[in-house]
Design brief:
Number of helices: 7
Helix content: 40-55%
Distance between the termini: 47 Å
Strand order of the largest sheet: 1-6-5-2
Strand content: 15-25%
Oligomer: single chain
CATH architecture of the largest domain: 3-Layer(aba) Sandwich
Length: about 190
Amino acid sequence: MAFELMQKTLDLIFPTLCLHCQTKTNRQLFCQDCIQSLELLEKEDILLYRRSIDHATIAFSKMGVAESLFLHLKKGLKPLSKIAASYMVCQLEKEKIALSDVIVPLPSKGGYKLNETLALEVGKIFKRPIKRLFLHLSLSFFGSSLVVKKSNLHSKKILLVMALFDEGVAQKAISELQKKGFKDIDLVALCV
C-alpha cells in the first residue's frame, strides 16, 4: 500500500513520458501510438540500401520513432536494447533468413559498444553464442580496414550485427571474412 502510494506520487511529480512524442505513458518507454507506428522495412526498401550485399536485412529507416529509438539506444538506455533486438529478430524472420550458429558484432567508428549490446540481445533471443571476430576497425582517407581474428568457426553460419547500416563497412567485413574462409554470412542492422 505504501509503495503504491509512493509510486503514484512519483508518477504525478515525474510522469513517464514517451521517448519520441513526450506524451505521458503508463511507465512505458514509448506510447502505444508510437509503438504502433514502428513498421519494419519492406524487402523493396531494403534492396535500395543494400544494393551489393546478399543476405542482409535492415529493420528500420532512421526516421520518426525509429530515430528516437536509435538515438536513445546510442545514449545507453539499456532497456531499449531488448526492444531493438526484438525488432531485428522479427525482420530476420520476416525476410526468412535462416538461424545462425554464431552472432558477431561488427566494430564501428565508436568501437563495439552499441553493436555488441545489440548482438548480445539477439544472441539471447536466439540462444546463440556471441563472438568477436574482428580485432578493430580503422578508418582513413582511403577507406576502412578490418582485421579478422583467427578462428575455428569457418564452418559455422555467421550473423553480423550492426546498429546503423553502413554498406562500405558491411562489404568490407564480409569480404574480410570470406578471405579467411567463412562462407555462410548474414547481416542484420537496426537502422539505415
